[in-house]
Amino acid sequence: MIDPRRLRVLQAVAGHGSVAAAAGALHLSPPAVSQQLLALERETGASLIDRSGRQVTLTAAGRLLAAHGERIAAQLRQAERDLAELTGQAAGPVRITAFQTVMGPLIAPALRALAAVCPAIQPIITERYGPAAVAELRLGDLDIVLAEYDAANPPPAEPGLALRHLAFDPYLLVIPPDWQVVVRSVQDLAGQPWVAGPPGTACDHALRRLAAEADIAIAAGDVCVEFPSVLALVAAGRGAAIIPQLALGQAHVTVCALPPLGGRHIAAWHRAGQAQPAPPTAAVLDALADAARAASILTSGRG
Question: Which of 4, 147, 199, 220 has its Cα between 20 and 30 A from that of 165?
C-alpha cells in the first residue's frame, strides 16, 4: 500500500527541484525527505529519483507516481467539497499570506465574519507576499496569497492558479508638509526627490508610468518596502511619493488634489483546477470580498 503522505513528499521534490528546497517547503529536514523517498521506493519497488546528476530529477516512474499523487490530492479536495455540501459547513485550516495595508480593511473584518458564521474554519495568517509565496501556493503549502498590481497593467497570469479581484485602491500623490510648491500635475515636481517602492511593486510601476507621462526624470532617492516607512520619510521632507489610499492613515503629509492617477488592484491568488477552491478557501475568499464591499473599496473596471 502506497502511503499518500509520501506521495506529497515526491510532489514537493518534483515541484521544487531539490530535496533541500522540498524539505524547506514541507518543514522537514533534508534527511527526513530522503528517508520518505527511499521508503516510497521500497513500497513501490521502483526507482523514483535519478540521483546520478548534481540535481535531483524524477525518473519516468517518479513522474508517473507524482501525477497520480496530484490526482489523489484532487480527489481528497473533492471529498472535502462534497462533505461541506452535505453538512452545510466548511471546516479546516486555510493558510493565507497578506501585506500590511490590507490587514486592517480586509483581513481583520473577514476573520471576524468567518468566526461568526464558519467557526470550523481555521485561518492562519502570515504577513508577506511576492513570488516565493506564489510558489508555495502552487505547491499546496498555502491556500490564498493576497497580491497587488498596477491597474494600468493587465492582470498577471500564473500557471495552475486563479486570481480573484477584491478591490481597487486609488493612488494619491503626497508631498512633505513644508514644501512650498503648488502641485497641479506630476510635472510640477520635476527635479524634486522621490521616495519610491522596491522595483516591481505596484507603486513603483505607477511612479515610473506617471513620470513617463509627465516627461520628468525620477531622481535616485530613498526606497522603502512598507508604506508607513514611505510616509515617515515624506513627512521628514525626503521627497514626494505615490501611495495607495488605503496606506494613508493619519500621516503628517500633504495630499495633492490632482485628477485621478490610477490605482492598484488588490486580488487573491488561489489554486485552480478540479474541485478548487476547496470549500474552506472559497468561504475565506467570499469573506474577503464582503469585507471589501463593506469598506466601499470594491469596484469593477476602474484603472
Answer: 199
